[in-house]
Design brief:
eight-stranded mixed sheet, Rossmann fold, alpha/beta
């Protein structure tokens, strides 16, 4: 059994995040999934990102009652920019199990721009999730034209299908990349924030307790 890591701004967390985490945990028989809210994500505009303490508390509220989910403040407590490689290395110090980094397909297509790519592919497995209808096969093409172009020693090659996932080997690494279609919940934190700013309902987009927390703290106004 491995440990899943799901990072993000969670600005705010919604049912799309939660359902993806649940399906991945079940498919890969993970011991647990650790949600890691980011502090200062280097790839994102900070303009619309609320303080990390609010985002962390919303994650805690959303996952309450699920014994397989927990939240870590490892990036929030780290000073400066948050980089995935630092988080993975720190988490590996506390676990002997394999680490599975969970990422959406659009985010992972930017993998070549991440910090310490060559070290990262030798540190953990990767689970890339996508909604039905998204072309996961194009992911390898994109990675070949970006990651392999910058780092010739890193090549992704198709191995086969295992359960709901396509499996890819990563050259120069003992770890693998898995691509997996998840339930197509067409939700986004951006749309939720826009609804709030316009005075529209966000009911059934995020847990009711999270919705109440947002109202009580007058967030995203």
């Amino acid at each position: 059994m491995g440990i899943g890591i799901l990072g993000g701004t969670f600005n705010p967390i919604h049912f799309g995040h939660l359902r993806a985490a649940e399906e991945v945990r079940e498919e890969f028989n993970l011991q647990k999934i650790i949600f890691v809210p980011s502090a200062q994500p280097p790839h994102k505009n900070l303009k619309n990102i609320i303080p990390s303490n609010y985002r962390k508390e919303m994650v805690e509220i959303a996952i309450k009652g699920n014994p397989f989910f927990e939240v870590s403040a490892i990036e929030i407590n780290r000073e400066g920019n948050s980089y995935t490689i630092d988080t993975i290395c720190d988490i590996k110090k506390n676990y002997k199990e394999d680490i599975f980094l969970i990422s959406g397909v659009d985010t992972f297509k930017e993998f070549s721009t991440w910090r310490s790519v060559e070290e990262l592919v030798k540190s953990c497995h990767f689970i890339v999730t996508s909604r039905p209808g998204r072309d996961l096969e194009s992911l390898v093409s994109v990675l070949s034209n970006t990651v392999t172009k910058r780092f010739p020693s890193i090549v992704f090659s198709y191995e086969g299908v295992k359960g709901r996932s396509s499996v890819f080997n990563i050259s120069s690494s003992s770890y693998k990349m898995f691509s997996m279609e998840i339930t197509g919940l067409d939700l986004s934190a951006t749309a939720i924030r826009e609804n709030i700013s316009k005075g529209k309902s966000i009911r059934y987009l995020t847990p009711a307790e999270v919705e109440e927390y947002i109202k009580e703290n007058n967030l995203y106004k």
